[in-house]
C-alpha cells in the first residue's frame, strides 16, 4: 500500500482512503484529508518529522506516523 | 431585552480581530467554568443590548478538545439567538466544514467572510451571492482588520436573531437521511423540533457525550445501533467517516460552484516558509528568534525592569518610605514591619514581575499573531513529543532559565491542556536566575568555586524535565486521549497592534489578579512565622527581645526530614522554607545564621560571593561535606518554586487540585532525587548507611519502573478506538 509517508517533498498524491481509528483518524479527515483530495507534500521539519502538507489550499502539519495511515495513489 | 449572539469560527480566521472591532472596549474576559479555556464576552458597540460571546476557535464540533466541548455545549445548551460564523475566504473549504455543522444547530446564522482582500489580490474570485444561495444564509464580506463590513454583519445577525428564518443544513445521501429521521423518531420524540437535527447526527456518530446526556434505554440504543451498522456496512466505513466524507463532497461541490481560483503562483506565506522552515535555515532562524525573545524579555530590558521594580522602586523608595511614614505617625514596630516588609513587600513581589511579564507577553503575542508560533511547534515537535510535551514547550523552558514566573505564564500558548499542564509542572525545574546565588554559594563553599556545579545544575534541571515527562505522561492525571498533532500552519500576516496589546494586557492582568492573591497571602504568612516568637509570650522579634522565631521552631521540628538527604540542620530547613519567598533568600539566611561574629559583615561577605564567607557556611552547615552540600543544592533547585512561581502555576492550572498536585509532585521528586544522590553517594564513597542505601535503591527502582513501564494509556486508547470503529 502506498501511503502519504512515502511521498517525497514537492510531490503530490491523491488520497484513496484514511486508515486507522478513533480521534486521530477523525481529526485528520476533519482537516480536509478525505477520499479523492489532492495533497502536496511541501517539506519535512528540520529534525525529520513532522511533514508539511498543502491540502485544500492551506498548510497542514502531520506526523509521519499518522501519515502512514493515509493511503494514496 | 438583550440578544445573545455567538461568534464561531476556525482558529486563525480573524475571529479575535472581528470580535475586537465589533465590541471595542466593552469586553469581559474570564474562563469557561471548570476549564482553562478563555471566555470572552462583550457588548456590541453600536447596540449595547446585544451581547456577543466569542467562542474558542475550533475546526469542528466533535467532542475531542476542551475548546470543542465548550463551544458545542454553549451552542446546544444556551442556544444563542444568532450565530456569526466567520470564515477565511482564502481557505474556504476547510472553514466551511465547521459551517456545515453549525447550520445543523438550526440557530439563525450569518456568515462573515473575511480576508477577501487577499483573495482578490491573488486574482481569485468568490461569488458571494451564489455562496449565500448554496448555504441558505446571508454571507457578508468583512475585513476584520480594517473594520469594513462589521456594522453590516452585526445588523444582519441582529435581524436574523429576531427573524424566524433558519438556514438549511446540507442533505446527506438518501439512505443516511432515512436513518437520521428514524433515529430522530426513536430517540428524540418530544424534543424541540429545531434541536433534532443536531442530536440525530450526533447519535448517528455515536457521540459518547450526547448518548450520556440523553440517557436512552437499552432497546432504543440497540435499534439505533442496527441502523448505523447497516449504513456502515453499505459504505464500508464507520459512521463518522461516512459523514465527514459527505460533508467534504458537498463542500468541494459548493466551492467549485462559487469560487474561481486563478492562482498557482506561490503565496507570500509560501515564500516566507521556504526560508523560515527550510531544512538548513530553520534551526539558525529559530535560535535567533529565541535568542531575541530571551535577550529582550530576560536578558536586557526585562532584567532591568525587575531590578528597578524590586530593588529600586520597592526596595529603596516605597518600602523605606512606608516604614518611615508609619514610624512617624507612631505605629508599633511590629506593625511597621508587617505592613512595610510583609504586605508592601509582598505586593512588590507581585508587581515586580509585571513589567517583565508584559514585555514577554508582548513578544509572544507578536509571534502568535504573525504565525511563527505554529512554526516553533512544527520545528520542535520531534524533540518534545516523546516527553509528553508540545513543541511549543520549548519557549516556557527557555524563559524558565531566566525566571520561572514568566516561563510558566508563557505556557498559555500551548493549546492542548495535557501538554500545557505538563509544561507548567516541569518549567520550574529549570534553574532560574534567582537559584543561581544558591548554586554559587554551594560551589564556593564546598567545591572551590568550580564552574561544573553551575553546569551540573542545568543538567539536573533538564534531566528532571525529561524524567518527569517520561513518568508523568503515563500517570493517571494525564490520562485522556492524547490530542492528535494535526496542526494548521496558518498564513503569515502582519500582526495587529490592538490584538497584541489587548492579549498582552489581559494576560498580565490575569497574572496580577490570580497569582497576586496567592503571593500576597504567602508573603504575609511567612512574615508572621519569621518575625514572631512564642518564647516568653508571643512577641515581635526585636534586637533586644530576641527569641526563636516560629519559623525556627518549625525548622527544628522538620529538620529530621532532611537528615536522610544529608542536611539535617535547622538552619538548612529554615533556609529552604524562606527560599519559598525568593530563592536568593536561601543564601541570605545562611549568612545571617552563621556564627560569623558580625551578622552584617557575614551578609556582606556572602552577598559579595566572598570565598571566605562561603567557606564558613560550608563548614558550619554542611560539615564540610560536598555530598551534603550538593544534595541541598539539588533539593532547592527542584522542590517547590518561590511563591511567585506557585502563584503563576495556580493561574495557569486554574484549579486548586492541579496546583496542589503540581507542587507536591515537585517536592516529592526533589526529595527522591536528593535522597538517591546523598545515600548512593555515601555508599560509593564507603560511608554507606544500610537503611539509607536500601531506601535509595528502592527509590531508584521505583524511578526506573515508572520510566520504563508500558504505557497503559496507549493500549486503552486502542481499545477505545476499536469501540469507536
Provide the gyration radius of chain A in Å.
11 Å
Distance, first to last CA of chain A:
9 Å
Number of domains of chain A: 1
Helix content of chain A: 10-25%
Main beta-sheet annotation of chain B:
7 strands, mixed
The counted number of beta strands of chain B is 12
CATH architecture of the domain at 3-162 in chain B: 3-Layer(aba) Sandwich
Mean pLDDT of chain B: 86
**For this structure, what is the CATH homologous superfamily of the domain at 3-162 in chain B?**
P-loop containing nucleotide triphosphate hydrolases
Strand order of the largest sheet of chain B: 2-3-4-1-5-6-8
- Named at the architecture level, the CATH assignment of chain A is Roll
Structural class of chain B: alpha/beta
β-strand amount of chain A: 35-45%
Q: Helical proportion of chain B?
A: 55-70%
Number of discrete helical segments of chain B = 33
- The total count of strands of chain A amounts to 5
- Count of alpha/pi helices of chain A: 2
Output the helix-strand order of chain A: EHEEEHE
Q: Which fold name is given in CATH as the topology of the domain at 3-162 in chain B?
A: Rossmann fold
How would you sum up the global shape of chain B? elongated
Compute the CA-based radius of gyration of chain B: 30 Å
Note down, in words, how this protein is organized.
The complex is a heterodimer of chains A (73) and B (725). Chain A has 73 residues and is of the alpha+beta class. Chain A has 2 helices and 5 strands; from the N terminus they run E-H-E-E-E-H-E. In chain A, strand 3 (51-55) and strand 4 form a beta hairpin. Chain A starts with 11 loop residues before the first strand and ends with a strand. The model of chain A has no long low-confidence stretch (mean pLDDT 92). Among the domains of chain B are: 3-162, P-loop containing nucleotide triphosphate hydrolases (Rossmann fold), CATH 3.40.50; 174-260, Helix Hairpins, CATH 1.10.287.1770. Chain B is built from 33 helices and 12 strands. The longest helix of chain B is centred in the C-terminal third of the chain and has 35 residues, at 497-531. Chain B starts with a strand and ends with a helix. Chains A and B meet through helix 1, strand 2 and strand 4 of A and helix 3, helix 11, helix 17, strand 10 and helix 33 of B.
Amino acid at each position: 500500500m502506498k501511503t502519504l509517508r512515502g511521498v517525497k517533498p514537492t510531490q503530490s498524491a491523491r488520497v484513496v482512503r484514511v486508515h486507522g481509528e478513533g480521534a486521530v483518524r477523525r481529526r485528520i479527515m476533519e482537516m480536509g484529508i478525505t477520499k479523492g483530495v489532492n495533497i502536496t507534500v511541501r517539506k519535512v521539519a528540520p529534525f525529520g518529522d513532522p511533514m508539511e502538507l498543502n491540502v485544500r489550499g492551506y498548510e497542514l502539519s502531520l506526523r509521519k506516523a499518522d501519515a502512514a495511515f493515509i493511503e494514496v495513489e | 431585552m438583550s440578544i445573545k449572539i455567538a461568534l464561531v469560527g476556525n482558529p486563525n480566521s480573524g475571529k479575535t480581530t472581528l470580535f475586537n472591532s465589533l465590541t471595542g472596549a466593552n469586553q469581559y474576559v474570564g474562563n469557561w467554568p471548570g476549564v482553562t479555556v478563555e471566555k470572552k464576552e462583550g457588548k456590541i458597540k453600536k447596540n449595547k443590548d446585544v451581547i456577543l460571546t466569542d467562542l474558542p476557535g475550533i475546526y469542528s464540533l466533535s467532542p475531542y478538545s476542551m475548546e470543542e466541548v465548550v463551544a458545542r455545549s454553549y451552542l446546544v445548551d444556551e442556544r444563542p439567538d444568532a450565530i456569526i460564523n466567520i470564515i477565511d475566504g482564502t481557505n474556504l473549504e476547510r472553514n466551511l466544514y465547521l459551517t456545515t455543522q453549525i447550520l445543523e444547530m438550526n440557530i439563525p446564522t450569518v456568515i462573515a467572510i473575511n480576508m477577501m482582500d487577499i483573495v482578490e489580490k491573488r486574482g481569485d474570485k468568490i461569488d458571494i451571492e451564489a455562496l449565500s444561495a448554496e448555504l441558505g444564509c446571508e454571507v457578508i464580506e468583512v475585513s476584520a482588520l480594517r473594520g469594513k463590513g462589521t456594522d453590516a454583519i452585526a445588523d444582519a445577525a441582529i435581524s436574523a436573531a429576531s427573524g424566524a428564518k433558519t438556514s438549511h443544513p446540507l442533505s446527506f445521501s438518501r439512505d443516511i437521511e432515512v436513518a437520521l429521521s428514524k433515529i430522530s423518531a426513536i430517540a428524540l420524540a418530544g424534543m424541540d423540533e429545531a434541536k433534532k437535527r443536531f442530536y440525530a447526527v450526533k447519535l448517528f456518530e455515536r457521540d459518547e457525550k450526547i448518548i450520556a446526556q440523553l440517557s436512552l434505554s437499552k432497546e432504543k440504543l440497540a435499534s439505533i445501533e442496527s441502523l448505523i451498522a447497516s449504513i456502515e456496512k453499505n459504505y464500508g466505513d464507520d459512521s463518522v467517516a461516512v459523514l465527514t466524507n459527505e460533508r467534504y463532497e458537498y463542500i468541494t461541490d459548493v466551492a467549485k460552484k462559487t469560487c474561481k481560483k486563478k492562482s498557482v503562483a506561490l503565496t507570500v506565506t509560501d515564500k516566507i516558509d521556504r526560508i523560515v522552515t527550510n531544512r538548513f535555515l530553520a534551526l539558525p532562524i529559530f535560535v535567533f528568534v529565541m535568542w531575541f525573545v530571551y535577550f529582550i524579555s530576560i536578558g536586557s530590558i526585562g532584567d532591568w525592569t525587575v531590578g528597578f521594580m524590586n530593588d529600586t522602586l520597592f526596595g529603596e523608595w516605597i518600602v523605606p518610605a512606608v516604614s518611615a511614614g508609619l514610624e512617624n505617625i507612631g505605629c508599633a514596630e511590629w506593625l511597621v514591619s508587617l505592613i512595610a516588609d510583609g504586605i508592601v513587600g509582598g505586593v512588590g513581589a507581585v508587581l515586580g514581575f509585571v513589567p517583565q511579564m508584559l514585555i514577554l507577553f508582548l513578544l509572544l503575542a507578536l509571534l502568535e499573531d504573525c504565525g511563527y508560533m505554529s512554526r516553533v511547534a512544527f520545528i520542535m515537535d520531534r524533540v518534545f513529543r516523546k516527553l509528553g510535551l508540545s513543541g511549543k514547550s520549548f519557549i516556557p523552558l527557555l524563559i524558565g532559565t531566566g525566571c520561572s514566573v514568566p516561563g510558566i505564564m508563557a505556557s498559555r500558548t500551548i493549546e492542548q491542556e495535557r501538554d500545557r499542564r505538563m509544561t507548567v509542572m516541569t518549567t520550574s525545574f529549570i534553574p532560574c536566575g534567582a537559584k543561581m546565588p544558591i548554586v554559587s554559594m554551594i560551589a564556593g563553599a564546598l567545591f572551590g568555586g568550580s564552574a561544573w556545579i553551575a553546569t551540573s545544575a542545568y543538567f539536573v534541571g533538564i534531566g528532571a524535565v525529561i524524567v518527569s515527562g517520561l513518568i508523568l505522561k503515563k500517570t493517571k492525571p494525564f490520562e485522556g486521549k492524547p490530542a492528535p498533532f494535526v496542526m494548521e500552519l496558518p498564513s503569515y500576516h502582519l500582526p495587529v497592534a490592538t490584538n497584541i496589546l489587548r492579549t498582552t494586557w489581559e494576560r498580565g492582568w490575569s497574572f496580577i489578579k490570580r497569582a497576586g492573591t496567592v503571593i500576597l497571602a504567602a508573603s504575609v504568612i511567612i512574615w508572621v512565622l519569621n518575625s514572631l516568637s512564642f518564647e516568653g509570650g508571643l512577641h515581635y522579634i526585636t534586637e533586644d527581645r530576641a527569641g526563636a522565631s516560629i519559623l525556627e521552631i518549625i525548622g527544628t521540628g522538620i529538620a529530621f526530614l532532611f537528615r536522610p538527604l544529608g542536611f539535617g540542620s535547622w538552619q538548612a530547613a529554615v533556609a529552604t522554607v524562606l527560599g519559598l519567598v525568593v530563592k536568593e533568600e536561601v543564601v541570605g539566611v545562611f549568612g545571617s545564621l552563621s556564627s560569623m561574629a558580625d551578622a552584617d559583615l557575614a551578609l556582606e561577605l556572602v552577598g559579595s560571593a566572598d570565598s571566605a564567607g562561603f567557606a564558613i557556611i560550608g563548614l558550619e552547615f554542611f560539615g564540610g561535606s560536598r555530598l551534603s552540600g550538593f544534595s541541598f543544592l539539588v533539593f532547592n533547585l527542584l522542590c517547590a518554586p518561590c511563591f511567585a512561581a506557585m502563584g503563576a502555576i495556580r493561574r495557569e492550572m486554574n484549579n486548586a487540585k492541579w496546583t496542589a498536585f503540581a507542587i507536591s509532585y515537585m517536592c516529592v521528586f526533589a526529595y527522591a532525587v536528593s535522597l538517591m544522590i546523598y545515600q548512593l553517594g555515601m555508599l560509593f564513597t564507603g560511608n554507606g548507611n544500610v537503611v539509607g542505601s536500601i531506601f535509595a535503591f528502592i527509590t531508584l527502582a521505583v524511578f526506573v519502573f515508572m520510566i520504563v513501564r508500558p504505557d497503559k494509556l496507549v493500549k486503552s486508547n486502542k481499545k477505545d478506538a476499536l469501540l469507536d470503529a
